[in-house]
Predict the 3D structure of the following.
Amino acid sequence: MPTHGPDRRDAGPSLEQLLGLIAPGMLDVVVAPRGTGVPVADVALHDPGEERDDGSGAASGLILLAVGVEVASPEALDVLRGADRAGAAAVVMRRGERGPRAALVEAAGLGRTALLTRRPGRGWTEVLGGLRTALAHSAPAGAGGPAAGLRLGDLAGLANTVADLVGGAITIEDPQSRVLAYSRLDHEPDPMRRLTILGQEVPRWRVVELRESGFFRTLWNTDGVVRLPADARYAERLAIAVRHGSEVLGSLWAAADGRPLAEDAEDALRTAARAAVPHLSHHRTWGRAAARAREAAVHALLRGDVRAAPEAGVTADRPYAVVVAEAYDGGRDGQGGAPGPGADAVHDAAGQRVLDVLALRAAAYRPGCVTARSGRLLYVLVPAGDGETDPARPLLATARSAPRSVVLAGSGPVAAGLPGLPASRETAELVVRVLRERAARRPPGEAVSAVADHGEVVPETTVLRLLDRVEPLWGALSGQVHAMVEHDRAHGSAYGASVAAYLDASCDMGTAARHLHVHPNTLRYRLRRARELFGVDPADPSVRLLADIGLRLAARRTPPGPPPG
């Protein structure tokens, strides 16, 4: 039997703890013969020329990164056996396309060293940095601290946890006063907190004000809590710098949230600042790369790839509802028209900032919410509680409050399992399309931000589904309605728009004329000419049905004009 050095029970956290702290989807456990509760002392690179496998236990408690070794390669078995003889807690190899051979899995099961694989797309530098960051900040002494149980880098969860301790609203900021996360909104925020959240940073004039008063100088040069008294404008605030050694990672801000701060708020904030160090350190080092990988995993999950759930941070046995939000600048030319299919909303900076705010709100709304962006759309997976059928309603309500921007947001039904997420996503996207079409019919200058649950727009989403399926067939046909649409397109006439308005008004001439801003006699003339020229007679039920279908489809292909003036 292989010999091993002393089992370092006090060497550090368990393998399970470390795997729970690093970014989801970075490593996979293939075999863990002693379970994942084994203690880990350190992380090291495997060096084939270094004698770790002499039976002395030189690698006891180590996670060895076998750089350059693929699990299906011939040398994988020798590397595993050498790590096992040296007493390593685990060895990590690159997974590759074929996965581990049966002989390697069998050998791992007979030994004591866990076999892990590195996911494709994850670099060794990222794995090493993630494990070492987790290891450095997960000592058993801190296991009961305020951040216990949080995944490394979960800033929204940290903000909510600290808010409960301090009894106030929490904002986590980087050294440049940009918002990284904030706690859930239990009460209406004061004006400064609202401005900071909506702008994702402390307003520039406020930064100048705090800098000139010496507040920032005091904050960055002390380990203690700095108090900013309440004044006629804003509630009382407490702030503390989060630092790792001499490096300032950011700051925690606590504001009275409709009630006085707790008596021990300063002590709680000091404790929270220590607990925040690994999270802000992780965010600074791996935040962007991990966010990109997580976002890609969310998109894969929404397309039906349930294997992406761990990397997306989604719990496999938990129900979720999908929310889709679309945002763009509502202040262009002072108008409030909705964007058409060709609108350049993808590059709309104001709309993108609104989506950033909505993503932050989603993270603060409920633990387990995950988000992903796609152009002008934001996708949110909202976990549902037992028996909860509309978990996204409070989140949808917050979408209405973005100033000078238009937000259209819809939610799909709760998916009982991961395979149901694509259907929930598709339904939520249809809800947004319904809201966009409604917004396009509103008068110029009228605010158009709108939200809806899928259950509120079932007839309209059903019509959209039917039109989506009919559209390919319609394009291959010809008839009276086709002729009328082609005439309008070629000559700039308005026969189709007149017939559509008449049908939308349930064949009420006065209502349709008012919608078109024409005299009823003008509309009568157009309808008569449509009947004479093309045979489109709204009095005929079959023609009426075909006209309704064809004109709805034609409206999809009509390029949007400028915002109404």
